[in-house]
Design brief:
Helix content is 79%, strand content 1%. The chain is built from 20 helices and 2 strands. It has a two-stranded antiparallel ribbon with strand order 1-2. The longest helix is centred in the C-terminal third of the chain and has 33 residues, at 404-436. It is globular. It starts with 16 loop residues before the first helix and ends with a helix.
Length: 437
Protein backbone atom coordinates (compact mmCIF):
# COMPACT_ATOMS: atom_id res chain seq x y z
CA UNK A 1 0.00 0.00 0.00
CA UNK A 2 1.52 3.38 -0.97
CA UNK A 3 2.42 5.76 1.82
CA UNK A 4 0.33 8.97 1.78
CA UNK A 5 2.13 12.29 1.32
CA UNK A 6 1.83 15.29 3.59
CA UNK A 7 -1.10 16.55 1.48
CA UNK A 8 -2.92 13.25 1.75
CA UNK A 9 -2.39 12.21 -1.86
CA UNK A 10 -0.57 9.09 -2.96
CA UNK A 11 3.10 9.66 -3.75
CA UNK A 12 4.47 9.07 -7.24
CA UNK A 13 5.25 5.49 -8.20
CA UNK A 14 8.60 4.29 -7.00
CA UNK A 15 8.70 6.59 -3.97
CA UNK A 16 9.13 5.02 -0.58
CA UNK A 17 7.97 6.32 2.78
CA UNK A 18 11.59 7.15 3.63
CA UNK A 19 12.04 9.20 0.43
CA UNK A 20 8.83 11.11 1.06
CA UNK A 21 9.81 11.84 4.65
CA UNK A 22 13.27 12.97 3.57
CA UNK A 23 11.82 15.34 0.97
CA UNK A 24 9.40 16.80 3.52
CA UNK A 25 12.24 17.27 6.01
CA UNK A 26 14.37 19.00 3.37
CA UNK A 27 11.51 21.34 2.41
CA UNK A 28 10.87 22.23 6.05
CA UNK A 29 14.57 22.83 6.68
CA UNK A 30 14.85 25.00 3.55
CA UNK A 31 12.07 27.24 4.89
CA UNK A 32 13.35 27.20 8.46
CA UNK A 33 16.85 28.32 7.58
CA UNK A 34 15.59 31.65 6.20
CA UNK A 35 13.77 32.23 9.46
CA UNK A 36 16.98 31.39 11.31
CA UNK A 37 18.95 33.83 9.13
CA UNK A 38 16.39 36.55 9.89
CA UNK A 39 16.62 35.94 13.64
CA UNK A 40 20.41 36.00 13.47
CA UNK A 41 20.24 39.28 11.56
CA UNK A 42 18.07 40.84 14.29
CA UNK A 43 20.50 39.67 16.97
CA UNK A 44 23.39 41.26 15.08
CA UNK A 45 21.51 44.54 14.71
CA UNK A 46 20.95 44.74 18.48
CA UNK A 47 24.71 44.68 19.16
CA UNK A 48 25.83 47.11 16.43
CA UNK A 49 25.09 50.38 18.26
CA UNK A 50 27.75 50.08 21.01
CA UNK A 51 30.44 50.33 18.33
CA UNK A 52 28.85 52.37 15.56
CA UNK A 53 27.01 54.94 17.71
CA UNK A 54 29.92 55.44 20.11
CA UNK A 55 30.93 58.68 18.43
CA UNK A 56 27.62 60.24 19.54
CA UNK A 57 28.38 59.36 23.16
CA UNK A 58 31.84 60.90 23.43
CA UNK A 59 31.01 64.55 24.08
CA UNK A 60 28.24 63.97 26.66
CA UNK A 61 30.34 61.34 28.47
CA UNK A 62 33.36 63.65 28.53
CA UNK A 63 31.19 66.37 30.06
CA UNK A 64 29.63 64.00 32.59
CA UNK A 65 32.88 62.41 33.77
CA UNK A 66 35.11 65.44 33.31
CA UNK A 67 37.75 63.59 31.29
CA UNK A 68 39.61 64.21 28.03
CA UNK A 69 38.92 62.33 24.78
CA UNK A 70 42.04 60.08 24.85
CA UNK A 71 41.11 58.80 28.32
CA UNK A 72 37.52 58.22 27.22
CA UNK A 73 38.54 56.38 24.03
CA UNK A 74 40.07 53.61 26.13
CA UNK A 75 36.46 52.47 26.60
CA UNK A 76 36.06 51.95 22.85
CA UNK A 77 39.40 50.15 22.59
CA UNK A 78 38.36 47.73 25.32
CA UNK A 79 35.09 47.05 23.52
CA UNK A 80 36.78 46.17 20.23
CA UNK A 81 39.70 44.22 21.68
CA UNK A 82 37.61 42.06 24.00
CA UNK A 83 35.18 41.38 21.18
CA UNK A 84 38.02 40.07 18.99
CA UNK A 85 40.48 38.38 21.34
CA UNK A 86 37.97 36.40 23.39
CA UNK A 87 36.34 34.98 20.26
CA UNK A 88 37.83 31.45 20.44
CA UNK A 89 36.71 31.01 24.05
CA UNK A 90 33.25 32.34 23.25
CA UNK A 91 33.00 30.17 20.16
CA UNK A 92 33.92 27.07 22.15
CA UNK A 93 31.14 27.79 24.64
CA UNK A 94 28.65 28.19 21.80
CA UNK A 95 29.71 24.91 20.20
CA UNK A 96 29.44 23.23 23.61
CA UNK A 97 26.12 24.65 24.90
CA UNK A 98 24.38 25.67 21.68
CA UNK A 99 23.69 29.00 19.99
CA UNK A 100 20.38 29.82 21.69
CA UNK A 101 21.74 29.85 25.24
CA UNK A 102 25.00 31.67 24.53
CA UNK A 103 23.63 34.20 22.05
CA UNK A 104 20.84 34.95 24.54
CA UNK A 105 23.50 35.64 27.17
CA UNK A 106 25.48 37.75 24.68
CA UNK A 107 22.53 39.97 23.75
CA UNK A 108 21.71 40.44 27.43
CA UNK A 109 25.31 41.37 28.27
CA UNK A 110 25.45 43.85 25.42
CA UNK A 111 22.21 45.58 26.43
CA UNK A 112 22.92 45.45 30.16
CA UNK A 113 26.32 47.04 29.56
CA UNK A 114 24.51 50.21 28.47
CA UNK A 115 22.13 50.07 31.42
CA UNK A 116 25.04 49.76 33.86
CA UNK A 117 27.03 52.43 31.99
CA UNK A 118 24.16 54.85 32.60
CA UNK A 119 25.00 54.65 36.32
CA UNK A 120 28.78 55.02 35.81
CA UNK A 121 30.22 58.06 37.56
CA UNK A 122 33.89 57.13 37.25
CA UNK A 123 36.11 56.30 34.31
CA UNK A 124 36.94 52.83 35.62
CA UNK A 125 33.23 52.03 35.97
CA UNK A 126 32.65 53.07 32.36
CA UNK A 127 35.57 50.89 31.26
CA UNK A 128 34.10 47.90 33.10
CA UNK A 129 30.51 48.32 31.90
CA UNK A 130 30.50 49.79 28.41
CA UNK A 131 33.97 48.48 27.47
CA UNK A 132 34.47 45.07 29.11
CA UNK A 133 30.93 43.75 29.59
CA UNK A 134 29.87 45.24 26.26
CA UNK A 135 32.87 43.77 24.45
CA UNK A 136 32.26 40.28 25.82
CA UNK A 137 28.57 40.45 24.94
CA UNK A 138 29.02 41.70 21.39
CA UNK A 139 31.80 39.17 20.79
CA UNK A 140 29.59 36.24 21.79
CA UNK A 141 26.79 37.35 19.49
CA UNK A 142 29.00 38.28 16.53
CA UNK A 143 31.00 35.07 16.41
CA UNK A 144 27.99 33.00 17.40
CA UNK A 145 25.67 34.27 14.70
CA UNK A 146 28.24 34.05 11.89
CA UNK A 147 29.25 30.52 12.92
CA UNK A 148 25.57 29.62 13.25
CA UNK A 149 24.32 30.80 9.85
CA UNK A 150 27.12 29.22 7.81
CA UNK A 151 25.98 25.86 9.19
CA UNK A 152 22.41 26.48 8.02
CA UNK A 153 23.51 27.44 4.48
CA UNK A 154 26.03 24.89 3.16
CA UNK A 155 25.18 25.97 -0.40
CA UNK A 156 25.11 29.74 0.27
CA UNK A 157 27.66 30.22 3.02
CA UNK A 158 29.11 33.38 1.56
CA UNK A 159 25.73 35.04 1.22
CA UNK A 160 24.55 33.95 4.69
CA UNK A 161 27.74 35.13 6.40
CA UNK A 162 27.46 38.38 4.48
CA UNK A 163 23.88 39.01 5.58
CA UNK A 164 24.83 38.39 9.21
CA UNK A 165 27.87 40.66 8.97
CA UNK A 166 25.80 43.34 7.22
CA UNK A 167 23.42 43.32 10.18
CA UNK A 168 26.33 44.34 12.37
CA UNK A 169 27.78 46.80 9.86
CA UNK A 170 24.49 48.53 9.00
CA UNK A 171 22.32 47.86 12.04
CA UNK A 172 23.16 51.18 13.64
CA UNK A 173 21.53 53.02 10.72
CA UNK A 174 18.18 52.24 12.37
CA UNK A 175 19.23 53.64 15.75
CA UNK A 176 21.58 56.53 14.93
CA UNK A 177 18.96 59.26 14.57
CA UNK A 178 16.70 58.13 17.47
CA UNK A 179 19.70 57.90 19.80
CA UNK A 180 20.98 61.29 18.66
CA UNK A 181 17.56 62.83 19.32
CA UNK A 182 17.32 61.13 22.72
CA UNK A 183 20.76 62.43 23.74
CA UNK A 184 19.70 65.97 22.88
CA UNK A 185 16.34 65.65 24.67
CA UNK A 186 16.92 63.35 27.63
CA UNK A 187 20.69 63.26 28.14
CA UNK A 188 23.25 60.47 28.05
CA UNK A 189 22.16 58.62 31.22
CA UNK A 190 18.53 58.19 30.21
CA UNK A 191 19.51 57.32 26.64
CA UNK A 192 21.92 54.58 27.71
CA UNK A 193 19.37 53.15 30.14
CA UNK A 194 16.43 53.18 27.69
CA UNK A 195 18.23 51.80 24.65
CA UNK A 196 20.12 49.26 26.73
CA UNK A 197 16.77 47.83 27.83
CA UNK A 198 15.47 47.86 24.25
CA UNK A 199 18.56 46.13 22.84
CA UNK A 200 18.55 43.47 25.56
CA UNK A 201 14.82 42.76 25.18
CA UNK A 202 14.80 42.57 21.37
CA UNK A 203 17.97 40.47 21.24
CA UNK A 204 16.74 38.09 23.92
CA UNK A 205 13.40 37.52 22.18
CA UNK A 206 15.03 36.95 18.77
CA UNK A 207 17.62 34.54 20.15
CA UNK A 208 14.94 32.29 21.65
CA UNK A 209 14.03 31.11 18.16
CA UNK A 210 17.55 29.99 17.22
CA UNK A 211 17.93 26.28 16.49
CA UNK A 212 20.85 24.02 15.62
CA UNK A 213 20.52 22.97 11.96
CA UNK A 214 20.01 19.37 10.86
CA UNK A 215 22.67 17.58 8.85
CA UNK A 216 23.86 19.75 5.99
CA UNK A 217 22.66 17.29 3.36
CA UNK A 218 19.06 17.58 4.54
CA UNK A 219 19.16 21.37 4.30
CA UNK A 220 20.06 21.43 0.65
CA UNK A 221 21.41 19.03 -1.90
CA UNK A 222 23.23 21.84 -3.70
CA UNK A 223 26.92 22.34 -3.14
CA UNK A 224 28.67 25.67 -3.47
CA UNK A 225 31.14 26.00 -6.32
CA UNK A 226 34.21 25.80 -4.18
CA UNK A 227 36.38 23.15 -2.55
CA UNK A 228 34.45 21.81 0.46
CA UNK A 229 35.70 19.65 3.33
CA UNK A 230 34.18 16.21 3.75
CA UNK A 231 34.89 16.02 7.47
CA UNK A 232 34.96 18.37 10.44
CA UNK A 233 38.26 19.55 11.89
CA UNK A 234 38.54 20.36 15.57
CA UNK A 235 40.18 23.69 16.45
CA UNK A 236 43.26 21.85 17.73
CA UNK A 237 43.60 20.12 14.35
CA UNK A 238 42.94 23.29 12.36
CA UNK A 239 45.55 25.29 14.25
CA UNK A 240 48.22 22.78 13.21
CA UNK A 241 47.63 23.34 9.49
CA UNK A 242 49.64 25.89 7.46
CA UNK A 243 46.44 26.58 5.51
CA UNK A 244 44.71 28.13 8.51
CA UNK A 245 47.67 30.39 9.22
CA UNK A 246 47.71 31.46 5.57
CA UNK A 247 44.09 32.60 5.95
CA UNK A 248 44.96 34.24 9.27
CA UNK A 249 47.79 36.25 7.71
CA UNK A 250 45.61 37.23 4.74
CA UNK A 251 42.75 38.47 6.95
CA UNK A 252 45.24 40.35 9.12
CA UNK A 253 46.68 42.01 6.01
CA UNK A 254 43.24 43.05 4.74
CA UNK A 255 42.12 44.25 8.18
CA UNK A 256 45.28 46.31 8.57
CA UNK A 257 45.11 47.85 5.10
CA UNK A 258 41.47 48.83 5.39
CA UNK A 259 41.78 50.27 8.88
CA UNK A 260 44.98 52.17 8.04
CA UNK A 261 42.93 54.37 5.76
CA UNK A 262 39.35 54.17 6.98
CA UNK A 263 40.24 54.99 10.58
CA UNK A 264 42.08 58.17 9.49
CA UNK A 265 39.54 59.62 7.04
CA UNK A 266 38.79 62.77 9.00
CA UNK A 267 42.49 63.57 9.35
CA UNK A 268 43.59 63.11 5.76
CA UNK A 269 40.38 64.68 4.41
CA UNK A 270 41.39 67.85 6.29
CA UNK A 271 44.97 67.60 5.01
CA UNK A 272 43.72 67.10 1.43
CA UNK A 273 41.55 70.21 1.81
CA UNK A 274 38.23 68.50 1.05
CA UNK A 275 36.68 68.04 4.48
CA UNK A 276 34.62 71.25 4.37
CA UNK A 277 33.97 71.40 0.63
CA UNK A 278 30.36 70.95 -0.48
CA UNK A 279 29.56 67.98 -2.73
CA UNK A 280 26.03 67.74 -4.14
CA UNK A 281 25.08 70.45 -1.65
CA UNK A 282 26.44 68.54 1.37
CA UNK A 283 29.71 68.66 3.31
CA UNK A 284 32.12 66.19 1.71
CA UNK A 285 33.25 64.31 4.83
CA UNK A 286 29.84 63.54 6.38
CA UNK A 287 28.53 62.59 2.94
CA UNK A 288 31.48 60.25 2.39
CA UNK A 289 30.98 58.63 5.80
CA UNK A 290 27.28 58.07 5.06
CA UNK A 291 28.01 56.46 1.71
CA UNK A 292 30.79 54.40 3.26
CA UNK A 293 28.49 52.92 5.88
CA UNK A 294 26.05 51.85 3.18
CA UNK A 295 28.64 50.31 0.84
CA UNK A 296 30.42 48.64 3.76
CA UNK A 297 27.18 46.83 4.59
CA UNK A 298 26.10 46.12 1.00
CA UNK A 299 29.39 44.50 -0.01
CA UNK A 300 29.13 41.74 2.60
CA UNK A 301 26.10 39.82 1.29
CA UNK A 302 26.79 40.83 -2.33
CA UNK A 303 30.33 39.49 -2.56
CA UNK A 304 29.30 36.54 -0.40
CA UNK A 305 26.60 35.74 -2.94
CA UNK A 306 29.07 36.13 -5.80
CA UNK A 307 31.56 33.82 -4.08
CA UNK A 308 28.90 31.10 -3.79
CA UNK A 309 28.75 31.10 -7.59
CA UNK A 310 32.22 32.04 -8.78
CA UNK A 311 34.33 30.57 -5.98
CA UNK A 312 35.79 32.07 -2.82
CA UNK A 313 39.32 32.75 -4.00
CA UNK A 314 38.25 34.20 -7.38
CA UNK A 315 35.98 36.63 -5.56
CA UNK A 316 38.68 37.48 -3.01
CA UNK A 317 41.16 38.28 -5.76
CA UNK A 318 38.75 40.65 -7.50
CA UNK A 319 37.48 42.37 -4.33
CA UNK A 320 40.90 42.86 -2.74
CA UNK A 321 42.39 44.17 -5.99
CA UNK A 322 39.40 46.50 -6.35
CA UNK A 323 40.19 48.09 -3.00
CA UNK A 324 43.86 48.45 -3.87
CA UNK A 325 43.14 50.10 -7.22
CA UNK A 326 40.46 52.36 -5.68
CA UNK A 327 42.93 53.49 -3.02
CA UNK A 328 45.53 54.29 -5.67
CA UNK A 329 43.09 56.40 -7.69
CA UNK A 330 41.82 57.98 -4.45
CA UNK A 331 45.36 59.10 -3.61
CA UNK A 332 46.09 60.40 -7.12
CA UNK A 333 42.89 62.47 -7.19
CA UNK A 334 42.95 63.52 -3.54
CA UNK A 335 42.28 67.19 -4.23
CA UNK A 336 39.00 66.44 -6.07
CA UNK A 337 36.18 66.52 -3.51
CA UNK A 338 33.63 64.73 -5.72
CA UNK A 339 36.00 61.86 -6.45
CA UNK A 340 37.02 61.79 -2.78
CA UNK A 341 33.42 61.07 -1.79
CA UNK A 342 32.72 58.55 -4.56
CA UNK A 343 36.00 56.65 -4.26
CA UNK A 344 35.69 56.39 -0.47
CA UNK A 345 32.54 54.36 -1.11
CA UNK A 346 34.43 52.10 -3.53
CA UNK A 347 37.22 51.58 -1.00
CA UNK A 348 34.75 50.49 1.69
CA UNK A 349 32.96 48.35 -0.91
CA UNK A 350 36.23 46.50 -1.54
CA UNK A 351 37.00 46.06 2.16
CA UNK A 352 33.86 45.05 4.08
CA UNK A 353 33.47 41.74 2.26
CA UNK A 354 36.29 40.20 4.31
CA UNK A 355 33.62 39.52 6.94
CA UNK A 356 31.72 37.25 4.57
CA UNK A 357 34.47 35.71 2.43
CA UNK A 358 36.82 34.58 5.20
CA UNK A 359 34.29 32.84 7.50
CA UNK A 360 32.66 31.04 4.56
CA UNK A 361 36.05 29.96 3.18
CA UNK A 362 37.13 28.76 6.61
CA UNK A 363 33.96 26.67 7.05
CA UNK A 364 34.28 25.24 3.53
CA UNK A 365 37.79 24.14 4.41
CA UNK A 366 37.48 22.83 7.98
CA UNK A 367 33.83 21.76 8.21
CA UNK A 368 30.72 22.87 10.05
CA UNK A 369 30.74 21.05 13.40
CA UNK A 370 33.25 23.43 15.02
CA UNK A 371 32.60 26.38 12.69
CA UNK A 372 31.93 28.86 15.48
CA UNK A 373 35.06 28.11 17.49
CA UNK A 374 37.19 27.91 14.36
CA UNK A 375 35.98 31.32 13.20
CA UNK A 376 36.67 32.67 16.68
CA UNK A 377 40.34 31.85 16.15
CA UNK A 378 40.36 33.47 12.72
CA UNK A 379 38.56 36.58 14.00
CA UNK A 380 41.53 37.37 16.23
CA UNK A 381 43.24 38.52 13.03
CA UNK A 382 40.79 41.44 12.85
CA UNK A 383 41.77 42.43 16.37
CA UNK A 384 45.43 42.41 15.34
CA UNK A 385 44.55 44.45 12.26
CA UNK A 386 42.77 47.02 14.42
CA UNK A 387 45.93 47.40 16.53
CA UNK A 388 48.22 47.70 13.52
CA UNK A 389 45.90 49.77 11.32
CA UNK A 390 45.18 52.91 13.31
CA UNK A 391 48.43 53.36 15.27
CA UNK A 392 50.65 52.28 12.37
CA UNK A 393 48.99 54.75 10.00
CA UNK A 394 49.33 57.57 12.54
CA UNK A 395 52.98 56.67 13.21
CA UNK A 396 53.86 56.60 9.50
CA UNK A 397 52.19 59.96 8.96
CA UNK A 398 53.92 61.45 11.99
CA UNK A 399 57.38 60.37 10.89
CA UNK A 400 57.01 61.17 7.18
CA UNK A 401 54.66 64.15 7.34
CA UNK A 402 52.70 62.69 4.42
CA UNK A 403 49.79 60.35 3.82
CA UNK A 404 51.41 58.86 0.70
CA UNK A 405 53.35 56.15 2.63
CA UNK A 406 50.18 55.22 4.50
CA UNK A 407 48.25 54.75 1.29
CA UNK A 408 51.23 53.00 -0.27
CA UNK A 409 51.37 50.38 2.49
CA UNK A 410 47.62 49.80 2.30
CA UNK A 411 47.72 49.39 -1.49
CA UNK A 412 50.62 46.92 -1.32
CA UNK A 413 48.81 44.87 1.35
CA UNK A 414 45.61 44.78 -0.73
CA UNK A 415 47.26 43.72 -3.96
CA UNK A 416 49.50 41.19 -2.21
CA UNK A 417 46.49 39.57 -0.53
CA UNK A 418 44.69 39.40 -3.90
CA UNK A 419 47.65 37.55 -5.37
CA UNK A 420 47.85 35.20 -2.38
CA UNK A 421 44.14 34.38 -2.74
CA UNK A 422 44.40 33.33 -6.36
CA UNK A 423 47.84 31.77 -6.60
CA UNK A 424 48.50 30.39 -3.09
CA UNK A 425 45.24 29.90 -1.20
CA UNK A 426 43.23 28.48 -4.09
CA UNK A 427 45.59 25.60 -5.02
CA UNK A 428 46.46 24.97 -1.35
CA UNK A 429 42.79 24.58 -0.40
CA UNK A 430 42.14 22.32 -3.37
CA UNK A 431 45.00 20.04 -2.32
CA UNK A 432 43.97 20.09 1.35
CA UNK A 433 40.36 19.19 0.74
CA UNK A 434 41.19 16.65 -1.97
CA UNK A 435 43.89 14.84 -0.01
CA UNK A 436 42.92 15.29 3.65
CA UNK A 437 39.22 16.29 3.60
Amino acid sequence: MPTPSLEGAAPPAGHTATQTTTQATAQTAAHTRWVQLGLGLVCMMTISSPQYVWTLMTKPLMAKLGIALPELQVTFSLLVLLQAFFSPFQGALIDRFGPRMLISIGTLLSGVSWVLASYAHTTSMLYLTYGCIGGLGTGIVYVGVVGFVVRWFPDRRGFAAGVAAAGYGMGAIVTTFPISASLATHGVESTLWLYGIIFAAVGLVASQGLRVPPAAESVSAAISRTAVATRDYRPSEMLKTPLFWLMFVMMTMMSTSGLMVTSQMASFAADFGVSKVLVFGLAALPLALTIDRFTNGLTRPLFGWISDRLGRENTMCFAFALEGVAMAVWLLTRDNAVLFVLLSGVVFFGWGEIFSLFPSTLTDTFGTRYATTNYGWLYISFGIGSIFGGPLAALLHQHTGSWVPVFGCAIVLDLSTAVLAMFVLKPARARFVGVRG
